Amino acid sequence: MSPNLCLLTVVPTPVRRRCALHYILLHLLGYKLSMDDLKSFRQVDSLTPGHPESSHTDGIEVTTGPLGQGISNAVGLAAAQAHMAATFNKEGFDLITNHTYAFLGDGCLQEGVASETCSLAGHLQLGNLIALYDDNHITIDGETDVSFTEDVVKRFEAYGWHVQVVKDGDNNLESIYNAIVEAQKVKDKPSLIKVHTTIGFGSAKQGTESVHGSPLKADDIVNIKKKFGFDPEQKFHVPDEVYATYNAIGVRGAEAEAKWDALLAQYAQKHPEEHKELTRRIRGDLPEGWEKKLPVYKPGEKNAASRKYSEIVLQAISAGIPELVGGSADLTGSNLTRVKEAVDFQPPSTKLGSYAGRYFRYGVREHGMGAIMNGLSAYGGIIPFGGTFLNFVSYAAGAVRLSALSQHHVLWVATHDSIGLGEDGPTHQPIETAIHLRAIPNLHFWRPADGNETSAAYLFALQAKGTPSVLSLSRQTLPNLENSTIEHAVKGGYVLHDVEGENLNIVSTGSEVQIAVAAAELLAKEGVKTRVISLPCWEVFDAQPKEYQLQVFRSGAPYLSLEAYTTVGWQKYSHEQYGLAAWGASGPYDKVYEKFGITGPNIAAVGKKVAEFYQKRGGEVISPILHAI
Amino acid sequence: MSPNLCLLTVVPTPVRRRCALHYILLHLLGYKLSMDDLKSFRQVDSLTPGHPESSHTDGIEVTTGPLGQGISNAVGLAAAQAHMAATFNKEGFDLITNHTYAFLGDGCLQEGVASETCSLAGHLQLGNLIALYDDNHITIDGETDVSFTEDVVKRFEAYGWHVQVVKDGDNNLESIYNAIVEAQKVKDKPSLIKVHTTIGFGSAKQGTESVHGSPLKADDIVNIKKKFGFDPEQKFHVPDEVYATYNAIGVRGAEAEAKWDALLAQYAQKHPEEHKELTRRIRGDLPEGWEKKLPVYKPGEKNAASRKYSEIVLQAISAGIPELVGGSADLTGSNLTRVKEAVDFQPPSTKLGSYAGRYFRYGVREHGMGAIMNGLSAYGGIIPFGGTFLNFVSYAAGAVRLSALSQHHVLWVATHDSIGLGEDGPTHQPIETAIHLRAIPNLHFWRPADGNETSAAYLFALQAKGTPSVLSLSRQTLPNLENSTIEHAVKGGYVLHDVEGENLNIVSTGSEVQIAVAAAELLAKEGVKTRVISLPCWEVFDAQPKEYQLQVFRSGAPYLSLEAYTTVGWQKYSHEQYGLAAWGASGPYDKVYEKFGITGPNIAAVGKKVAEFYQKRGGEVISPILHAI
Ligand SMILES: [Ca+2]
Ligand SMILES: [Ca+2]
C-alpha cells in the first residue's frame, strides 16, 4: 500500500539546509537512509543528492529543487487527497484523510508558479493543505528587503487561505504546534502558517545570508553544539535518546498503518468493488481491456483535426479509466479535453461540481497546472492530463522537466500545435517547442498524423507508467491515411508509404505527413520513387530494436525531413531538412502553409532537387541512423 | 526621437478584441495603419496579425499575445522611465515623465509571470505605472467563478499598489477618467484600476463567454450599431466626426511632441554632454571604443570559471556603457553579475539605492525578469542583462521567445551551465536547455570555452542590436586555450586545433572544449590525427559565408561532437555524438564528469573508435554541413 495514502505527506522545499533536515528526519524515522548515506550528502551515486529526487530516495514524495515546485506539488497532492477521499471514502470508512504539509521560504513565494497554484488552492478550498512559511527575512541576495516587501499574509488571505502568524519560531515550539492544530481544524481553506525564524539560529552568523550557502566555521559549530546540549567532539552522532524519541514516532506510524490496513481489510469486505478499484489504481494498473475502446479509422473516413481525434479517444475511454483526471488551462473549448458527462472538480459549496469530479478548471495557469499534475500523479491512483496550446507548454517548462525526472505519469493534451493554428499568429505558433520537448530525457513527445496515430499515442502514453507524454495535436483537419494503423504507430515510427528502389525518402510527423504523401504522389509521376515515413514519437522509435529501425531507415536513398517547426534536430533522421527558418505568420492556416512552401507541389519540387543532388554526388547514401557509437 | 520617451506608453493585452481595438485606435490616431490594413485583420502578411508584434506594426510598443507578458512588459517600461528620468532629468528639464498604461484581463492576472512582476513593481514603487483591469468576470472557459475567485484588489494592495474600483465601466466613462486622474496623482505606488465591465456590451450575448472567441451574428451587429447611433448598413466606416475627434488628439500629441523637442533642444544647450549621451542611447549606438576594454588572455593565463570571465568583462566595460543595466534573479553572488561600484535600482525611500542605480534585484522571479527586461529594452536607451542559472532560463521561456520575436536587445548571464555545477544535482543541471535555446529563431546562444571566447560573446552580443543573447557560463574553472582569440570566436565557430590529413575532428563548446583538446593530444600519441573545432555560437557560425563554414567543417574525416548536454541537435555538425543520454548527477563536478565519461582519456577512446569505424567503412567522409538544400 502506498504510504502516501495513509501517512502524512511532507513536501520539502529546495533550500539545502531543509533538504539536509529532510534526509536526517527520514533517517531518524527509519526510512531506508543510513548514517553512511547521510555522510555522502551531495556525492556521486549517493541516496542524498543536493536536491531530493522522488524516484531516487525512499520517503521523498516529490522532486522539488527548483523553487516554487514544492508548494505547487503540495497543492496537487492535497487536491488528489480530496478527490480520492470523495471517490472512495464511505460511511464508517474514512480511508483517505491525510493532511499535506509543505515547508516553504521567501524564494518559493516569489516564483510565479507558486502564485498560480496557491490562488487555485484557495479557490478549491483544499482544507487538508497546511503550508509552513519559514519567514527568515533572508534570501541568497541578502535581506528580502531588496526585492520582496509584499504583505504575504494579506496576499494569501486574498487567495482565500486561512493564515496564522507564529512570532517566535526560534524558541516557542509550542506556538508552532498549536498553529498546526488550529490549521487542522479549518476544513474549507488551505492554511498558511507564517513562522518568524532566524536563519542559522544559534550560530554566530545567525540572521545573515552568509548562512544560506556557506558552511559554518568549525568553532561556530562547536559553540552551537554546546548551546543545544550536544557533545561538540562528536560528528554524525545521534544520541540514543534521540533515536528512541524518533523510534517512538516510527512505532506510532506503524501502528497507524496497521490500523489503516485493518480498516482497508474491512472495507474490502463491505465494499469489495470499490476496494478492488482502489487497490488497482494505487498499484497503477490500468483496467483490463480498456484499450479495446480506442477508436480505429479506415483511410479517408471521418476526417478531423487531431485535437478532435483526441476528444473522441477521451470520450471513448474516460468512463473505463476512472483514474483519468483531466483539465485545461482555460482552453477547454479549444483543447477539447472535457468529455460530455464530465463533472468539474470543485468544492461542493460552489455548486459547480464536487471533489469526486474528474475535470479540473486550472484557469490560465499553465505552469501551475504542470506542477499540480505532478502532485496528482505522485499521490497515486490518478493519471492526470492537462490541456493547453502546445506553445504554452513552454510556460510550464520547469514543471515538465520535473515530470520527466520524477517519472510522473502525466499527459499533456497540447493542441493548436503549429502554424496550422493560423490566425493567432507567431506569438502562439510553436517553432522550437517540439525539439525542446524531444530533448528532455524520459519525456515522450507524440505528434500523430491522423486518427489511428492519435489512438496509438494515447495507447502508448497511458501504458507508459513512469513516463510523461506530450501529445501535439492540430487545430486543422487531417485525413485518415492509407496504411496508418495503431500497431504501426505505437512503434514511434514506421514506413507509411513503401516503394522498391526508392530515389527519395520523406520523413515527417503530424499534420505534415499528408503533405509528404501528396508530394510522394506527385514525385512518382515524375519518376522519383519516394517512400514516406511517419515518425510520431522519436523517443519511442529510438527504443525499438535496431533491426527494425534500420528497416524503416534503410540505406540507399536520401532522407528529407518535413515538419512545420524549426529544422534543428531533424539531422538525426535525415540528410536534408525542410521546415521553418524563423517565425510563423498570422492568417488562415492554408495560406500560412502556402507562404512557407509546405504544400505537396513545393515539397515535391524540393524532393526532386534532393534526389538529383545525391544521384549526382554518387556513392552509397547511408542511413542517417547508422553510427559508430 | 523615440516616441516611447515622450508620449504615453500603452501596452495592450492579448485578447483578440482588445487587439482589434488597439489597431483601430492606432488607425484613428494617424499611425501607419490604413483602413485596408484593418480589413486584412489576421490575414497573411498584413500589418494586423492576430496578436500585435512590436517589430511589425507601427505604434505597437511590445509584443504581447501570450498572457501575462503585457503587464510584465509594462512594469519594465515603467522601470525604464524611472531609470531614464533619474539619469537624465535636470532642474527645469523634466524630459522623461511619461506614464505607462496597461490594459489587462482576468487571464493576465492568473499567469504567474504577472504575479512576479506586479509584486516587484509594488516593491519598486513605480508611480508612473497605471494598469486598467477589465473585470468582466469571463474567461474562455466561462465564468471566472470556475477557477479565479481570489480578491484581486486585496492581492494588489498586498503588493503595495494603489487600487481603485470603477463600478460601472460600461456607462460611467467619467468615473474611469477620474480614476486615471487620481492614479496619476499617486507618485510612490503603481496603480490598479479595476473596472467592472460587461463583455460584449450592447450585444444580445453580452456577459457570456461566447463573445470571447466567436464573432457576433449579423443581426446582433445591426442592433449594436443602431444602439450606439451608427448606420447599421455601413461596414469599415468611420464617421467624419470620429476622425475629427481623434485627429484633434493626434494634433494635441504632435503639439506635445513639438514642445518636447523644443525642451530637448534647450537641454542640448544647457547640458550638452547629457544630451549627446541621451540621444546616443536612444539611437542604440554603443559608445565608441568600448570594446577596447574587453579583457584578452594568453594561453594558460589567469584560469577561471567562465562566470568569472564574465564578471571580469562586466567590471571592465560597465563604466563605459552606462546603458548596461543588469541584475539577477536572487543569485548575484553565484552569477557574478554585480560590478564593484554598482548602485542598486531602488526607490530612494528604501535607502538601498536609487532609480539611477543600474543593478536590479529581481528576486526569485526568472520569468518576471525576462519579461521586465523586454520592457526595459523596448523603452529605449537601456541594454538589460539578467543573471540566473542556465537551467532556470527555462522558467522564463515564455519571455525569452518574445525577446527573440520582438527583437529586444537583451542578455542573459546564465551561469552554472551543465553537470559542472556539481552538487546541486539533476534538478539544477540543464540537459535540454541549450538545444531549446538554439532552436529559437533570432536568439544567440553562446557557450564560451575560455576567457577570450567570453569576451567575444559579449562583443558580439552587445553589438547584436535586435537580437537577444544567452551566455551559457560555467561554475567550474576553465583554462585559457591555445589559439582561442576574440577574432576567431566572434565568428561563432573556428578551428581551435588544426592538423593536416586528419583522421578525426572533435567539435565542442564551453567547458568541454578543453576536454576535446586533451583527447586530441592523447589521440595524436596513438597516431589518430585530430582537429578540434570550437563552436561557441551555432547561430552566428551559420551566418558566416559558406566558404568559411566549409573551411572549418571540411570533408575528409568524421566529426565527433562533445557536449555535456543531450546529443539531440548535434547531428547538424557531426557524424557521431557524445553527450548525456539522460539526467546528470549530484556530486563534486569532476566526479560527475568522470561518471559520464566526459574526460580526455575516455573521449580519446571514443574518438579512436569513431575514426576506425569510418576508415573501415571506406569512401569519402563528407562534411556534415554540405547539403542539397
Ligand atoms: Ca529565506
Ligand atoms: Ca476576461
From TrEMBL, chains A, B:
Keyword Oxidoreductase: no
UniProt EC number: 2.2.1.1
Keyword Zinc: no
Name listed for the protein in its UniProt record: transketolase
Keywords for the protein's UniProt record, in alphabetical order: Magnesium, Metal-binding, Thiamine pyrophosphate, Transferase
Residues engaged in binding Mg(2+): 106, 136, 138
Domain Transketolase-like pyrimidine-binding: 304-480
Family stated for the protein in its record: Belongs to the transketolase family.
Cofactor requirement: thiamine diphosphate; Co(2+); Mg(2+)
Organism: Tulasnella calospora MUT 4182
Superkingdom of the organism of origin: Eukaryota
SUPFAM superfamilies found in the cross-reference section: Thiamin diphosphate-binding fold (THDP-binding), TK C-terminal domain-like
